[in-house]
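STRUCTURE:
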């Protein structure tokens, strides 16, 4: 409720009626602040620790843009990032991952204000959280400032923030020693954390603070004027900054203004590579990035300690690492911090001026699902480069083979799971991800080589699914994604003379789902026996196919070729299963979309 109250007082579009509708259906004041719902809310941070990760991302982009564009006489990018947190936030792993990186990178314009009240929902932090926070974060590279009177010593608070802003080489953690529920009958207890104060307690609290206890949701004109003065000051500062940006653009060109506006440069997409020889799609992604990164200055990203495997740092792009001594660098060494990386990426996008990408193995996106889910909910443009995407990674075995994960990711609203089959499809997926500025994307990329398809196309990828092998009056349809597309094509060849088979590549299910029904029926024609092939769990494929050739359990440790044979992911088995499917279903198969359309 605090952020909503402050936004209202400062003149944002939150009325007193909005405050009264707190936590109610369709209100502008949901139970946890949500980006895109309430004006003035920058990020969605209900799950603890996420806001800290977001703040690190914001501070990182500020530092990168400042180092890249500021001139001695024109400091256009020059602001601090402030984040409030509590005991619970600092317990979360995502917070530790992110703040550890912030200390390493010396993000000196990051100011963390820690509400150190030693209470969580379970009660006193003495039952679970007794570490020495000041010593811990000093060791992580933070400037530490303590304010003992966090409920009343306003001068000490002002001095702490002033001192934090003066830091030139470290981020700052302000330990604000407070008493939760200060002044109420429940002060210092866990009860005040999640329960409203009683009516008598509210009366006593208002009386003690000199307010009329008979009035509720009441703000005097004098109080409004005090807060609105800050808004007026901010509006004047914004006007002055806009003038500075115009002056900068006139002197140094439009690149900075374009980054801030989120405008892509002309001609970048035409540079993307198309099919050539057989390569792994992770290599195809590297080829695409080699053209994208030099062409789009807003592209900032890296890998969670898997650069050489994810291939996220193409040599042709001549990238410089973002480090303490090279903050104009555009390549970020996130370290072994998958969850932190994805939370930081959300903050990078929220800041503006960047299109963040981050690499890891697809399996370890599972480590980061908390941040990935919030990216989807918050409409962040985060691009996950998820290599080693299936049993095709081979000998590392089931701990690294994410057989069940695609079903989970595909269930996320506003999220694009992309599984391209070759260079052309990979380039097209990158293009769509970059153009989709309100949707996160996950490029699921192979370790093993794939077979380029003659009919692969950007247009097809932009429709989500399309025909790569056509047959006149088809008797069966094979759908596949990624490295399994070539299996479907080879199976169709084996069935020549027996069945007329159409082969469909479906790199992005969610995009196909959004197509007009007329187009969908030209690709997955209702009533034709349809078999899908993908080296993942069948969950979700029932929307499109009558039978799925994939895995219902975990993988195994063996060479990739042996694994594909063991799990029946071969052209021979796919052809046999297709023949059996046509035999069982007959000439007219059950329609897959008719019921959903009827009930929509």
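SEQUENCE:
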């Amino acid at each position: 409720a605090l952020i909503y109250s402050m936004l209202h007082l400062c003149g944002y579009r939150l009325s007193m009626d909005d405050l009264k509708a707190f936590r109610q259906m369709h209100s502008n004041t949901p139970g946890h602040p949500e980006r895109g719902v309430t004006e003035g809310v920058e990020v969605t941070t209900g799950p603890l620790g996420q806001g800290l990760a977001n703040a690190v991302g914001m501070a990182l982009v500020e530092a990168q843009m400042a180092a890249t564009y500021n001139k001695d006489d024109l400091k256009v990018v020059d602001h601090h990032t402030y984040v409030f947190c509590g005991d619970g936030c600092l317990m979360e792993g995502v917070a530790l991952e992110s703040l550890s990186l912030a200390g390493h990178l010396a993000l000196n314009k990051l100011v963390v204000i820690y509400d150190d009240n030693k209470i969580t929902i379970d009660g006193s932090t003495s039952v679970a959280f007794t570490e020495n926070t000041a010593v811990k974060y000093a060791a992580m590279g933070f400037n530490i400032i303590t304010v003992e009177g966090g409920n009343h010593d306003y001068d000490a608070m002002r001095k702490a923030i002033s001192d934090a802003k003066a830091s030139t080489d470290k981020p700052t953690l302000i330990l604000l020693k407070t008493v939760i529920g200060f002044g109420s009958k429940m002060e210092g207890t866990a009860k005040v954390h999640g329960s409203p104060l009683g009516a008598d307690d509210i009366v006593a609290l208002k009386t003690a603070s000199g307010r009329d206890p008979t009035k509720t949701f009441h703000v005097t004109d004098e109080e409004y004027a005090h807060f609105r003065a800050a808004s007026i000051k901010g509006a004047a500062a914004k006007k002055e900054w806009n003038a500075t940006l115009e002056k900068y653009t006139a002197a140094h060109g439009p690149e900075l203004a374009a980054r801030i506006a989120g405008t892509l440069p002309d001609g970048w997409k035409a540079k993307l590579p198309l099919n050539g020889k057989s390569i792994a799609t992770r290599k195809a992604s590297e080829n695409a990035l080699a053209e994208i990164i030099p062409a789009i200055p807003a592209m900032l990203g890296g890998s969670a300690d898997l650069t050489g495997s994810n291939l996220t740092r193409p040599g042709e792009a001549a990238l410089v690492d973002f480090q303490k001594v090279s903050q104009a660098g555009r390549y970020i060494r996130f370290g072994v911090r998958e969850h932190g990386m994805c939370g930081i990426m959300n903050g990078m996008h929220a800041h503006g001026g960047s299109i963040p990408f981050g690499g890891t193995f697809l399996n370890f996106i599972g480590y980061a699902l908390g941040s990935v889910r919030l990216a989807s909910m918050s409409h962040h443009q985060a691009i996950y480069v998820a290599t080693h995407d299936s049993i095709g990674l081979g000998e590392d075995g089931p701990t690294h083979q994410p057989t069940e994960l695609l079903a989970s990711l595909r269930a996320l609203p506003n999220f694009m799971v992309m599984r391209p089959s070759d260079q052309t499809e990979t380039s097209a997926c990158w293009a769509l991800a970059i153009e989709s500025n309100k949707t996160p994307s996950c490029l699921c990329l192979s370790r093993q080589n794939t077979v380029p398809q003659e009919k692969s196309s950007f247009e097809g990828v932009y429709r989500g699914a399309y025909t790569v092998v056509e047959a006149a009056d088809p008797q069966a349809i094979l759908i596949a994604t990624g490295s399994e597309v070539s299996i479907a094509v080879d199976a169709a060849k084996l069935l020549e003379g027996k069945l007329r088979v159409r082969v469909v590549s479906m790199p992005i299910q969610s995009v196909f789902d959004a197509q007009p029904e007329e187009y969908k029926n030209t690709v997955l024609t209702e009533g034709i026996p349809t078999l899908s092939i993908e080296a993942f769990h069948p969950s979700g494929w029932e929307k499109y196919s009558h039978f799925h050739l994939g895995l219902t359990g975990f993988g195994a440790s063996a060479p990739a070729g042996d694994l594909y044979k063991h799990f029946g992911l071969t052209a021979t088995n796919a052809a046999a299963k297709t023949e059996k499917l046509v035999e069982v279903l007959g000439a007219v198969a059950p329609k897959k979309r008719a019921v959903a359309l009827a009930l929509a």
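REMARK: The mean pLDDT is 96.
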